[in-house]
Description:
It is a single chain. This protein is α/β, with parallel strands linked by helices. Helices cover 47% and strands 15% of the residues. It is built from twelve helices and eight strands. It has an eight-stranded mixed sheet, with helices on both faces. Helix 3 (113-124) crosses helix 8 (218-226), helix 6 crosses helix 7 (202-212) and helix 10 packs across helix 11 (283-302). It is globular, with a radius of gyration of 19 Å. The protein starts with a strand and ends with a helix. Residues 307-318 have low confidence and may be disordered.
Amino acid sequence: xxxxxxxAVVDGRRVRFxxxxxxxxxxxxxxxxxxxWAVNVHGYFAGGGMYxxxxxxxxxxxxxxxVNPSLPGFAGxxxxxxxxxxxxxxxxxxxxxLDLLGVERTLFLGHSMGGAVAVQFAVDHPxxxxxxxxxxxxxxxxxxxxxxxxxxxxxxxxxDVASVTExxxxxxxxxxxxxxxxxxxxxxxxxxxxxxxxxxxxxxxxPVGAMLMTIDMxxxxxxxxxxxxxxxxxxxxxxxxxxxxxxxxxxAVTGLDVQWVPGGHSWMxxxxxxxxxxxxxxxxxxxxxDDVAERRRRLLALDTPAGARATMRVLQAP
Length: 318
């Protein structure tokens, strides 16, 4: 299974993305049905290309058509103007790309910052969202609360500097997890092209990082769950960036348990088959896929004339 890299112009800005070439795959309703589209949204200082091996596994395992976008300012995609650097505008770029590709409804896999994008998309377009795999997400504020030795030492004098320094140290300590795996050279080849582009354009990503330090989407996350969108929280048990306290916050907001997996914050990069295995073999993953399939059936039913009439009756009821 290959990912085909492409570029598009969205609202006058270049967007880098890739789409799986599994065009012959059928949907879960059987031959002749359209396949499920899924969007794999990357985290901060990453890019869509870093997740191509994982997306290939997911496409091969489930027959999904995978879209790997590089968000504005990352991995060669043009940045947004500073005054538009917010989750809603970033998400609007993803929605516009899906419109360009003719994707009507989609399943989201959102990692870290990508989890916030997935939640915002579900808030803005619940009728287009089949479900969210929320992975080590940064949509809620607990991940910013640092309590390590650097904060204890510098916090009383330089609280902001201490928090940022502690976060950078956590990222460094989390990075050795990327070196674990049976195909280390393949992992490095997958990470380096987007990492190199991000290093060259670091000034473009700093406003996004500053924005992430301020967002609090607890209300939006709760709204998505109340709307009936299936949400599946998956967390690396050694995550030092979005710590276990962030996973506990996710559970407190949504009432949903988290599925813990081996690894750190970016556990899926050195173990690209891991997410497919969680969804295929674990009871929590299979339940989530069942919920997604049921939601897809309900939404498809609304596309029929009878479904449209039923919807109109509900809207017109006193």
